[in-house]
Amino acid sequence: MANTDIGIVGLPNVGKSTLFNAVSAARVEAANYPFATIEPNVGVVAVPDERLDVLARLAASQRVVAATVEFRDIAGLVRGASTGEGLGNQFLSHIRETDAIVHVVRCFDDPDVVHVEGSVDPARDIDTIETELLLADLATVDKRGDRAVRAARSGDRAAQRAAQLVAGLQEHLAAGRPARSFGPAGGTEVEERALAHELGLLTEKPVLYVANVAEDEVGALAAGGGADAGPSGKNVEIVRELAREQGAEAVVICAEAEAQISELAPEERAEFLAALGLERSGLDVLVAAAYRLLGLITFFTAGPKEARAWTVAAGTAAPRAAREIHSDIERGFIRAEVIAYTDYAALGSEAAAREAGRLRVEGRDYVLADGDVVHFRFNV
User: Fold this and answer.
1) What 3-state DSSP class applies to 106?
2) Which is nearest to 59 in space by CA: 366, 326, 274, 341?
3) How far is it, in rounded angstroms, from Cα 71 to Cα 128?
4) Which of 36, 103, 229, 357 is most buried, taking the most CB atoms under 10 A from its CB?
């Protein structure tokens, strides 16, 4: 599939660029004033996956290629962005190009880091961003609504149905509900989802919330601690509750600590994480959550030349998955030889898995599972 593109959004000075620096190992300006980032910085991030390292070792692979996620650091939005305030129109267009949104919410208090609203208030800050995205979407749908009404006057049934759908979407957004929750309104959910997607609506994109906390609190809060886990605990609970109300997920990260981790040698990272009370880095947590958000899975190919992780949507059939490697493999697909990762790792090689009867031969209808190690047979 094409690169998974995730936009990092939020108010100015909430830690977006600092987080981007950490996850992409880039060195983007992270200044203590609004609009330090104007153009969206793009970083391609390797997806951490211990399974790939194990497969590479067992297959004695010369090269290891991880799956990737593309993050965009989008400049901070402010109140009035939907009407162009603070270069809002430009920033909103950058969000429109992404597949999903990581919404960074400041939960820590630091007098040395200016807050654009003058105080730390996660509920208000989240509402500010979501309101601006809703208003931008409503403007988009209103324009489409005008055209739909004119077309419906012709008496064409398809045009009348389209006008009905647009009117339902207008009402939905005007009530303060995001496009991603737009459900059946006298028609089919497929129609409504297709309309929201066709219009490129910002609130149709799935959202993952990141509660950005202080370094000395991250261990307890990331482990599930609440209001009693530190000064930021109450703010983190607010973010979690708002995420639950939307059916979304919230992860706790200290962006500043992640930036430090990204600069350490691999052998030093484990020690630093332990000192913070963390079992794994925020990057690992963030990328895993992003995969869940977008409904993605990983399959592998492994051999002496290369061990590689490939990303596909859950529910992808074998021929379509083969296209990720090369379109010729999809076109000439014969079968897929599949070993579950757990079997491959336990038995130690493809040959051992075959001998033990753990290699399966699957046809065109086979739907790949996360962790499948696959060898595609094809003829063109």
Assistant:
1) strand
2) 341
3) 22
4) 103
Q: Determine how β-strand 68-73 pairs with β-strand 4-9.
A: parallel
Q: Looking up tokens 């992808």, which residue turns up?
A: 316
Q: CA–CA distance from 251 to each of 107, 182, 223 (Å)? A: 12, 25, 10
Instruction: Name the residue with tokens 């605990």.
Output: 233
Q: Are 68 and 44 in contact (CB under 8 A)?
A: yes
Q: Are 334 and 377 in contact (CB under 8 A)?
A: yes
Per-residue b or e along 206-230, where b marks 16 or more CB atoms closer than 10 Å to that residue's CB: bbbbbbbbbeebbbbbbeebeeebb
Q: How far apart are CA 40 and CA 316, in angstroms?
A: 31
SS3 at position 107: coil
The token duo for 133 is 């995205």
- The one-letter amino acid at 223: A
Cβ atoms of residues 138 and 83 within 8 Å: no
**269-307: pLDDT as tens digits:** 889 999 999 988 888 889 888 888 899 999 999 999 999
Beta strands in 304-353 (DSSP E): 306-313, 333-340
Beta bridge partners of 313: 296
| β 41-46/63-65 pair status | unpaired
Phi and psi at residue 25, to the nearest 5°: 60, 25
d(CA 185, CA 172): 10
To the nearest 10 degrees (0 to 180), the angle between helices 255-262 and 282-294 is: 110
**CB within 8 Å of 29: residues ≥ 6 apart:** 17, 36, 37
Return d(Cα 165, Cα 171) in angstroms, integer: 10
CA angle in degrees (0–180, nearest 5) for 77-21-75 = 15
Per residue in 216-245, pLDDT (tens digit) is 999 999 988 877 877 889 999 999 999 999
Tell me phi and psi for residue 45, to 5 degrees: -110, 130
Residues 173-209 pLDDT 10s: 999 889 888 865 444 566 666 777 778 888 989 999 9
